[in-house]
Amino acid sequence: MLDRVFSPVSIGSLRLDHRIVMGSMHLNREDDPGALAAFYRERAAAGAGLIVTGGAAVNRAGAGGPNYLLINEPEAAALVSPMLDAVHAAGGRLALQLFHAGRYARETTYGLRPVAPSEVPFSRTLPRALTQAQIDDTLADFAAGAGTARALGFDAVEIMGSEGYLINQFASPLTNLRRDRWGGDPQRRQAFPRAVLQAVRSAVGEGYPVIYRTSGADFVAGSSTPEESADLALALARDGADAVNIGIGWHESRVPSVQGMVPHGRWMEIAGGIRAALAAAEVAVPVIGSNRINSVELAERALAAGHADLVSMARPFLADPAIVAKSRRGDSNLVNTCIACNEACIDRSLGAAPVSCLVNPRAGREAQFPLRPVPPPGASRVRVAVVGAGPAGMQAAATLAGSGLKVDLYEQEGSIGGQFRLAGQVPGKADFLQTIRYFSHELGRLGVSVLAGAAPDTEQLAGYLHVVLATGVLPRTVGLPGAGLLPVLDYRQAFADPARLGRRVVLIGAGGIAVDLSRLLADAAVPGGPREVTILRRGGRIGDGIGPSTRWAVLQEIRAAGVRTLANTTPLQITAAGLRVRDPDGAAKLLAADDVVLAAGQVSHNPHEAQLTARGIPVTVIGGALDATGLNAVRAFEQGLAAGTAVARLLNGKGTQAGPAVKSSRAPLP
Q1: What is the pTM of this model?
Q2: Computed from CA positions of residues 321, 324, 327, 328, in that sequence, does the dihedral angle turn out positive or negative?
Q3: Which residues pair with 270 in a beta bridge?
């Protein structure tokens, strides 16, 4: 039952029929109003009652990068009008987030030195301390942005005062070293956040909904205490905020807050503590909780526990625009779950690449890849085959079937999922199995025939009008002297049966797969005590290929689990006692081992293309079968979508469509 989630609630004068908020996400698509309109329209139409936009900078100094909306500049109206019209036409509500990056801004964006309360550096940036006149101007910019938002037709505004941005910097003793009216003690550090609210409220009037996103925990040594954060939230509620939305963590925090290893709902108790403080003070302002809630069922539990009045979910709406509608009608098995990988969303938002979603590559490209009605059962459809049911194959099969084609999906293993089945075994990555659960049900809904445990030959594939080859990769072999003196396994064999490995394991390779496997092995109990796991690579970067928002947290976790990481180390020879290596200083040494595991990359596995091409059968190759270099799941899902769309357009007589490069034989595909 989802009774609490699907009960009405009010944020000031804004009445909502459920308690899920689609949280703010910077999309790096603010220069494409059509794409933003299509993105928001699809989510509003599928039940996202209140949507908060990505941050809209109140001035150029506050922009987080080159693709941020500048709400107070003349072109803002033309950029936001399409998304407003789209959301309202779909029955949704849209709130504009008022944003200032403070010391997180980049001088390269507009040639402006970042500003902050005090000259406390971030990374390589030393911000300029705001003068009183500049503070006054910034407050006026917040007010102007709020007034513009109301005039343009936004249903609410949200003030971004969390996650280490400018307002949060004023609230923190770590970044606010001032000794004037704006700093010096906890009360004066509240002055700027409260002044922003006063300026915004004066601009929009008493009846207009204002949400304040404020930090519940900075997770940075020397920053605000939990009591100070709660006191600020209470002050903002008393000052007239219609809701307080509780954020967690700063960019430089070494406490994981949004990564997959963070347990679901881990930080909701922080919002719950602030909610309790408001209740004790008899301040009846709703609290919005967030972070690591990736299903409506989890949101229901958080509400039932009293942690919040509403729950904000951002990335889950990237993964599935219809998460609310599907959950509401009892179709949770058809929800494409956010796996908190961050690879196509947060990692891209930190740069300039357009944001999307690893498990839903349509995200942000809804206009380019529109949804179509699923053909009714029994409809006459062209038959195509997809060989391989890893990420690329699953996505290609779903895209083809959703375009009206009859699809047979072959998978030589006993179930679909490919390397997601391996990832799902790793502590902190169980959500990867939710992707397999989703496709298992979605492929069935679309009428795809899944032929697991089947490795088709050329004769079987010859009857199809088109064959998509997504046969994936094989582990790269590493030839070392003495290979017969100790057990040597590849990473797939190690994942398949971790218990067969002894207490001392050395992994050759230290990319994403090796790091994941090391975590799995270190976590498993074995006779004789904890496993001694070592990963090594010839290069200097452990965990190369893992996204920037996740790599530091994963390495921190495996080292805490006892995994030894050796960079710039060359494997030389296997002996009966272990693996001889050359260390960074050029000296030879022995790494004691009971087993050696090869996780030093992958090679393409493409056994069918040449034979099918020789028979004149149109073929498209995608994923690791096309190119194993730098392979990741983002690319695999994107190619599955692009190739499936292109093949469907071709076979449905609609020509071709440009998309990411995929290899084609005979057919003019992208």
Answers
A1: 0.95
A2: negative
A3: none
Closest CA to 320 of 354, 345, 357: 357
Tell me what pLDDT residue 568 has: 97
Copy the structure tokens of residue 510: 């230290």
For residue 227, the SS3 value is: helix
Superfamily of domain 383-474+604-665 in the CATH hierarchy: NAD(P)-binding Rossmann-like Domain (3.40.50.720)
Q: Are strands 93-99 and 69-70 parallel, antiparallel or unpaired?
A: unpaired
Nearest to 358 by CA among 314, 307, 318, 387: 318
Residue 123: the pLDDT is 87
The per-residue pLDDT for range 249-292, each reduced to its tens digit, is 999 999 999 999 999 999 999 999 999 999 999 999 999 999 99
Q: Per DSSP, what are the bridge partners of residue 215?
A: 247
**Mean confidence (pLDDT) of the chain:** 95
Q: Does domain 488-600 have CATH number 2.40.10.270?
A: no
- Mean pLDDT over 17-43 rounds to 97
Are the beta carbons of 453 and 414 closer than 8 angstroms?
A: yes
Core vs surface per residue 115-148: b (16+ CB within 10 A) or e: bbbbebebeeeebeebeeeebeebbebbbbbbbb
By the 8 A CB rule, do 243 and 233 touch? no
Contact in structure between 569 and 585 (CB atoms under 8 Å):
no
Which residue matches tokens 């920037």?
A: 548
Give 408-437 pLDDT, tens digit per residue: 999 999 999 999 999 999 999 999 999 999
Strand 578-582 with 570-575, pairing: antiparallel
Do 45 and 84 touch, CB atoms closer than 8 A?
A: no
Which pLDDT tens digit goes with each residue over 22-34? 999 999 998 899 9
pLDDT grade for 655, boundaries at 50, 70 and 90: low
Do the beta carbons of residue 26 and residue 349 sit within 8 Å? yes
* Nearest alpha-carbon partner for 72 in 130, 138, 127: 138
How is the chain split into domains, by residue range?
Answer: 9-332, 383-474+604-665, 488-600
Q: How far apart are CA 320 and CA 438, in angstroms?
A: 11
Alpha-carbon torsion (349, 312, 223, 284), positive or negative = positive
Task: Summarize the chain as % helix, strand, coil (round to 5).
Answer: 35, 20, 45
Contact between 660 and 392 under an 8 Å Cβ cutoff? The reply is no
Token representation of residue 159: 């003030």
Q: State the DSSP code for 389.
A: -
d(CA 547, CA 422): 19
CA-nearest of 65, 68, 73 to 56 is 68
With contact defined as beta carbons under 8 Å apart, do 250 and 168 qualify?
yes
Q: How confident is the model at residue 660 (pLDDT cuts 50, 70, 90)?
A: very low
In which band, very low, low, confident or very high, does the pLDDT at 516 lie, cut at 50, 70 and 90? very high
Rounded Cα–Cα distance for residues 170 and 356 (Å): 32
Domain 9-332 has CATH 3.20.20.70: yes
The first and second tokens of residue 113, run together, are 């030195």
Q: What separation in angstroms does the CA of 131 have from each of 118, 145, 162, 554?
A: 10, 21, 22, 40
Q: Is 670's pLDDT higher than 70?
A: no
Query: For 533, how many CA atoms within 13 A lie in the half-sphere containing its CB?
Result: 29
Q: Could you give the residue numbers annotated as active site?
A: 165
pLDDT of residue 310: 98
